[in-house]
Amino acid sequence: MQRPLPRDTEDGGGSAVLDGAVTTAAHPLRPHRDDVLLAVAGLVGGLVLWVAGVRTEDVRAPLPGAWVLVPLVVASGLELLRRTMPGTVVLVGTAALIMNRFTTGNLATILVYTDLMYAGVLYGSPAAARRIPWVTGLITVATAIGLTAWFQSPDGLLFGLAIGLVCFLPAATGAQVRGHRDAAEAAGLRTEQIALLAEMDRAQAVTAERSRMARELHDLVANHLSAIAIHSTAALSLDDARTTREALTVIRENSVDGLAEMRRLIGLLRDGDDDRRSLPAPSLAALDALLEQARTNGASSGLVLTLDDGRGSATALPAPVELAAYRIVQESLTNALKHAAPGTVGVELGFREDVLTVRVTSPYGTRPGPRAPGSGAGLVGMRERAALLDGGFEAGPVATGDGSREVWVVRAELPVARDPAGPEGSGTS
Question: Which of 23, 178, 314, 378 is the most buried (most CB within 10 A)?
């Protein structure tokens, strides 16, 4: 994100002040238009004062006459460089001011020098901006004290006051303006950073919500559509009236249930702010109904489902944990329906040391008959659900105890010691 140039360096300025340092812009030798106006005003004003005979020093000065125009021209010319070469401007301007003291003196030269001192602090390096006010302040105090002690007269105080007005006051003013400008730039940068962080948070929230909705939609439709795909394939491939009728019955039940769940989810998305339309998240209390539905869908594939609930007295778990466990079992049963060989599909729940363990085993091997295609999104969704609760997840083939065959095992460990408040906290069915 680009930062705009400060106001005093826009529109053709010769330099840009960034973080207290001076860097040249696209036209380093082109002076700012305000600097040109200051230079012209100083030069013209000085010439008018000289013609009018206005002077600040004794007419018997060491350099009388037109010599007074030399420091005037030098100081006015330095105005063109006040932004691009502030350090040089202060040094040369000081020499011009000293020379002005040895001429009949011109008030315009002194006024121009005050602006050069101000610019030296405002546009100079951070080190110069810190040192110039201190140096000019010390010079002012030392001059006032020294001259007062030397002349034994209050005139020394007046001379020190004059030096303070010409040197210290412009430097202090420049330091104040620079401090306010830097504070404004820092505040603008913080505002940009806050806006950037807010945009990043918004993008992350949108991504997290899209991932959550993708998991919910997948879990809602995958089970029903898998059953529909398998039984419709069986009905088309087997020329048996009884088998076709049973397949069509299962297809109808799954299509009606899936359509109802999709309608409820769409209603939630359209009226998410209406609490009356909200639905409770599925929990492990509905696990028996889920297994009964899976038994119906998997009967024709030779699958037998069993449930071993070893949670004991730990039946009341945080809603996010129950939702994650339910969805993991649901997706595991869907995968078994699509890929498992005929045999027993076992669902085991355990609770120990504030960790809920979910384990689903299914026969692993070549499966006869129709199969539904898989995309791998189910495994990704289960792993994400476990990760959101700081839990563990693993899935893959494992050899049985006697080594005679392999089973596909899905295992998840979901911590329940804390009450997680994540994106799954108020999931939908």
Answer: 378
